[in-house]
Amino acid sequence: LPSFTPSTPTTPTKLGAGGWSPLDTDRYQWLQVDLGSRKQVVAIVTQGRYSSSDWTSKYRLLYSDTQKNWRPYLQDGNIWTFDGNVNSEGVVRHELQHAILARYIRFIPVDWSKDGRIGVRLELYGCSYWADVISFDGHGVISYRLRSKKMKIVKDVIFLKFRTTTGDGVLLHGEGQQGDYISLELRRARLQLSINLGRSNQYGSIQGHTSVTSGSLLDDDHWHSVVIERYRRNVNFTLDHHTQQFRTNGEFDHLDLDYEISFGGLPVSVKPSSGGRENFVGCMEGITYNGDNITNLVRRKKVDTSSFRNLTFSCAESNSFSVFFNSTSFLRLPGQSDSDTLSVSLSFRTWNPNGLLLFTALADGWFNYLSHNILLKFTDWSMFFLAGSGLNDGQWHSVHLNALENYAMLTVDGDEASTVRTAIPIQIQTGGTYYFGGYFLHTNTRSLQRSFQGCMQMIHVDDHLADLRALEQGLIGTFENVSLDMCAIVDRCVPNHCEHGGRCSQTWDTFSCNCTGTGYTGATCHTSMYQQSCEEYKHQGKSSGSYWIDPDSSGSLAPFRVNCDMTGEKVWTTLKNNLSPQTSVTSADQEGKAVLQITYNVTDEQVLSVTSSAEYCEQYVAYACRMSRLLNTPDGVAFTWWVGRANERHSYWGGSGPGIQKCSCGIEHNCTDPRHFCNCDADLKEDAGLLVYKDHLPVSQVVVGDTSRAGSEAKLTIGPLKCQGDRECNYWNAASFSSPASYLHFPSFRGETSTDISFYFKTSSTHGVFLENLGTTDFLHIELRGGSVVSFSFNVGGERMELSVHSPVPLNDDQWHRVEAEKNIKEAVLQLNGQYREVRPTPPQGHTKLEFYSELYVGASSGQRGFLGCMRALKINGMTFDLEGRAKGTQGVNPGCQGHCSSYAMHCRNGGKCLEKYNGYSCDCSLTAYDGPFCTDDVGGYFETGTLVRYDFLPEAGAFALREEKSLSGVGVPSEANLTQEELVFSFSTSSAPSILVYISSRTQDYLAVVLRHNGTLQIRYSLGGLAEPYTIDVDHRNMANGQPHSINITRNLREIRIQVSVSCHYNGIVAWKEFQFCLSLVVSLVETGQIDPILIERYNTPGFVGCLSRVQLNSVAPLKAALRSGLAAPISTHGILVPSNCGKMINSLIDDVNNRCSPEMKSLFVLFPGIISMVIFTVLCIMVFVIRHMFRHKGSYHTNEAKGAESADCADAAIIVNDPAFTETIDESKKEWFI
C-alpha cells in the first residue's frame, strides 16, 4: 500500500521534515486515508512527526467502504486501542489480528505527547482485494442447480460474505426428499446454521436435526464473513474469525440434496411447510459452494436468476446515520419553540437497563424518557408512565412521542395496538431545545445515572428527520463526546465467555456469568465444583456413596453422578441403567425380534471418560430362558446379540470374550447339555456372567431373536457398569526434585482464554520455581518465595500481572500444600490450601489465547533457583501431567515421593495406622474394631436369642495378643500376664432386658461384666482380687433398652477408672455424654480363667441378649470383627445365629451432635458430691478402701468410692449372650475368656 508520510520509503524514516499534526490538539481530531479501492490491510506502522516533540502514544482505527457508517477495529471483543510512540523517531509496528477490508481508514488519536502536540507519520501494509458483489432486494433468489438430481455429499465447503441492515432473512437453503437439509439464516440479527443428515436406525429412531447459532448485531451494515466446513458429521462453523466446532446428531454421514441449493431465500420448489421465513435483503459477495464461485457464475449468467426484478452487482449505500454515545455524551438539536405540539421519535440500541434518551425543557416544567422500559416523566407535576419491556437487548427499537395540548401518546417499536395514551395536567408549550443521550447542567457535574450508552439513529424532531451531517459540520446544534456516523456497540456475550452453559448478561462496559446449575464456579464458570473420580473422593477421606464426578475437570465434558464403592483397597465406579432385573422380554417386531434399549442417564462421552481411564471394567448379564435360545452354535447366526460402545454389535455373552460365540458354561465345559455352548441354546436354565472387555462396554441395546415359539419365555438382566482403577487421574503421580538446577520439561500446551493450573507440593526449602512456560510474548510463572509466599505471574495484552498469597504458617514444613491458579477473561485467582486466596481483575484488552513456543518446565530453566522437594498431581486445564514417567531418566529428579503419612495420617481414624506406599498411603485397621479404607466402617452383628461370641486367650499367646499396641485412647497393655490397665469399647442397641452385654473372665474368679438390668439401666460389675462380693457401678438411671444406639467406653489405669456412656436423649433423639471417675487401689488380673458368676446367669442371662453389637474392642483385640471376618485367624467361636449389621453407624452422628443440641440438663449429668458432706464421705470411703487393700491383697490393689450392695438391686439390663448351659461350667484352666 502507498505510504502516507511526506516521503514514500518502505518504512517511515528520519528523512523529510513532515508528518501530520492537526492545528487543534483534542479528542476530535482524525486523519483519513483513501486507499483508492477496497484493500486488505494487515499491518500499520507509526512514527512521530519528524524532529519534533509531537507524537501519538495511543490511537484507534476506524474503517469504511463509503466514508459513511464507520466501524471501529475490534480485537478480543473490545474497541482496540493501539500503543503508539514514545518519541518522534522510534518505529512501532502492529500486525493486525484480523485484517481490515475497506477503502477508507481513519486514524483516531487517543493520547499524545505531553510536551508537544498530536503528530504522526504512518504506513499501512496489505494487498489488493476484489470480489463479485450481488445485491438482494428480498425478492430475488439464486438457484444453483446441482450436477445431478440427487447428490450424496460427504464433504461441504461453503464461503460467503454478507452485509445487511435487516435482522432476519435466509442466506442459503438446500434440502432433499429424504428429509436432509442445510439452512443458513439470520434471526434477530444472529446467524443460525441448521443441518439434518437423516434419522433412524434399524431398531429405533435417532433425530438428526442439529442447529447452532453464532454472532450478534449482524444487521450493522458491515461485511461479515461465513465459512462452513463439513466432513461427514464433523462441522466447523466460522463467523468473522470465530469458529464453533460441533458434530451433527444422528448416524448418517451424507447430505442428500435434490436438484438445487439456493442463496438469498427459499427456492420455489420448497414445500409450503417451510413458509414464514423471509428472504435476505442486503449484499453478498464471494459466494463459493464446494469450489464453485457462485457470484462469478451469476455474472456470467450460468445460474438461474429469473426471480430478480433488477439484478445489480454493487452494494447500495445505507441512508442511516448513527450516533454513538458514551457515559459523558450528549447531542443538542433545535426544534420549534412555543408550540402546543411536541413530536419526537428515534431508534436506539443499548445493553444498559437505564439511560436518558431525551430531555427537553417546556415553558412550564420539563420531561424526559429513559430506556429499558420507556419511562416518560413530566415534571414539575411528578407524573410518569411506562411503555415496552426488555428494550436493553442490543436490538434496534423505535420510540415515538406525540404530545398535543394536554394529551400524550407513546409508541414503542411501531406497535400501535400497545400505544400508551394519557392525559397531562397542563397545556404543552415547547421550549425549542432537545437534548439526546444526556443533559448536563453548567455546574460541570455529570449525572452518570442519567446518561445513555448506546446508539441512536433516525432522530426526528417536529416530524422532521434531523440532518446529522449538518450537525457534524457545525451548521446546526452541538454535541460533546459523541462519535458521529458510527455505532460501536459490542456484544460482550458473543462469543459467550461464560463456559459450561453459564448464562451471560451484560451492561455496556462488562459482562457477568450466572453459573447456577452448571456444576462450575468462578467468574466465567470455568472451575469444576467436583472431583475428577471416585479415587479422588476416597483420598479426601470420603466414604462410599453417590457423588458427582467431572473427569476432565474444566474441560467440555459436563459433570455426572456415579456411585462410588470405597470399601475395599480398589475403588469401584458404578453407572446404573434403566433396566430392572429379570425384565421379561416381550413385544417382538415383525421379524420376531424384541429390542430392549438400555440407558444410563449419561452421555456416550461421559461413559467413555469412565471406561477409558479405568484399569478394569465389568458388567453382569443374565438371560433366563424357557424355549428361548440365546446364541446358537459358534458358527451359526446368533439368535441374540447386544450392542456396545460405538453401536457395535456383539454376539458373545457374559463369561466369554470377543469373537467367541459362547456362554460361560461353554468356556468352562459345564453346560447342562454338552452338545451346546449355552444352557439356553438347549432351552434350559440360565446363562449369566461378566462382560469384561471394557472397550465394548457398556451394553446399550439387546436384541432377542427367539421369543416367538409357543411357550417361549425369556427374562433379561443387565447389571450396572462397574469400573475400577484410575489411570488418568494419577492423584499420587509425583516426582522428587533433589537439585535446584533440576527440572522436567513437557511439550508446550496451547493456552486458552481461561487457563487453570493446580498441583500439590511439599518442601523444606524457602525458595524455588514450581513451573514456568515462556512464549515470544506470553508467559506463566509460579514460584515459592521466603517459605511462606506463593506467587503467580503472567502477561495480558503485554501487561505483566502478578498475584501473591501469603500463608500464616510456613510452607517449607515438609507437609503437603495445594496451589490452584486460574486466569480468565475477567479475573485472575491464586489460591493456597483451599483457603488463602487473592483475586484481581484482568485488563479488558489482550485476552487472546495464550501462545507458548517454549516447553513447559516443571522447575526452573531460566537460570533461577528451581524447586527442591516433591510435587504431585500437576494438572493444567484438567489434563494430568505424568511427572513420574518424565522423571525416569532425568538427572536430579526421581519418580514418586515418600512421606505421605506426615500429611494424611489423620484420615486413618479410630486407631488405624497410616502405612506409606510408593504412590500414596493406606490405613491398617487390623488392630481396630473397624474396617474400610480409613477404618471408619463399623463392624457389627445382630444377635438373636441364644447367640454368643467367645474369644479365648491362650497362655502362650495371651501376652502376644495383648502386647503393647495402642488402643483407641492410647492406653497400652503391658506384656506381663497381669493387666493393670485396660480399655473396653463397644456400641449396642436393644429393646429387651435384662441381658449380659460383655463378660471378661480370668483363671480365677476375677471378672468384668457389663449388664443391662431389668429396668434397662446399665451396670458395671468388677470382681477383682478375690473379694467376697463384686463391686458394682450403677452408671445411670435411664432405660437404655430403648432401641436406640448407645456407646460404652470403660478405661482403667491402675487406680483410676473412667466410664463414658452415650445416651440418646429421649425427647429429641440426640446424645449426651456422662463421665464417672472412681478411686481404685487393687490390681486387676484378667489372664487366668475361672467360673462365670452364677448370680449373673441367674439374674441377667434369661432370655439373653437380642439386638445389635458393634465396634467391640478390648485394647488391641476386636473379637466381634474376628468372628465376622472369615479371613482373620483368631481363637474365636460363635454359638447361634450371628448376622452382620451396620447398626453402629448411627452412633457417630449422634455423638458428634451432642454439645450443640442436648439440653443443659442432659449435658450436666455428672457424678458430683455436694459441698463439705461430699468431701467427708469421700475421705471416709478412701480410708475404708485403704484398709481393705491390706486385708484382701491378691495380685494388685483396687480403690473405689463406689458404694457396695448394688448387686442386691432388684433389676438388670438389656440383652447380650449366654443362653447356653455350657456357660455355667468351669472353663478350661489353660484359657482366658471373653464372652459377648
TrEMBL record:
Bilayer topology: Single-pass type I membrane protein
Domain Laminin G: 133-315, 320-487, 733-897, 950-1143
Comp. bias intervals (Low complexity): 1-13
Entry keyword annotation includes Transmembrane: yes
Subcellular location: Cell junction, Paranodal septate junction; Membrane
Region ranges (Disordered): 1-20
InterPro entries for this protein: ConA-like_dom_sf (IPR013320), EGF (IPR000742), FA58C (IPR000421), Fibrinogen-like_C (IPR036056), Fibrinogen_a/b/g_C_dom (IPR002181), Galactose-bd-like_sf (IPR008979), Laminin_G (IPR001791), Neurexin-like (IPR003585)
The Fibrinogen C-terminal domain, residue ranges: 525-577
Membrane-spanning intervals of the chain: 1165-1188
Highest taxon of the lineage: Eukaryota
Main location (coarse class): other
PROSITE patterns found in the cross-reference section: EGF_3 (PS50026), FA58C_1 (PS01285), FA58C_3 (PS50022), FIBRINOGEN_C_2 (PS51406), LAM_G_DOMAIN (PS50025)
Gene Ontology CC: membrane; paranodal junction
Keywords: Cell adhesion, Cell junction, Disulfide bond, EGF-like domain, Membrane, Phosphoprotein, Repeat, Signal, Transmembrane, Transmembrane helix
Pfam families for the chain: EGF, F5_F8_type_C, Laminin_G_2
Sequence ranges assigned to domain EGF-like in this UniProt record: 489-526, 898-936
Disulfide bonds: C870-C897
Domain F5/8 type C: 1-127
Family: Belongs to the neurexin family.
PANTHER family attached to this UniProt entry: CONTACTIN-ASSOCIATED PROTEIN-LIKE 2, PIKACHURIN-LIKE PROTEIN
Name of the protein this chain belongs to: Contactin associated protein like 2b
Taxonomic source organism: Dicentrarchus labrax
Upper classification of the organism: Eukaryota, Metazoa, Chordata, Craniata, Vertebrata
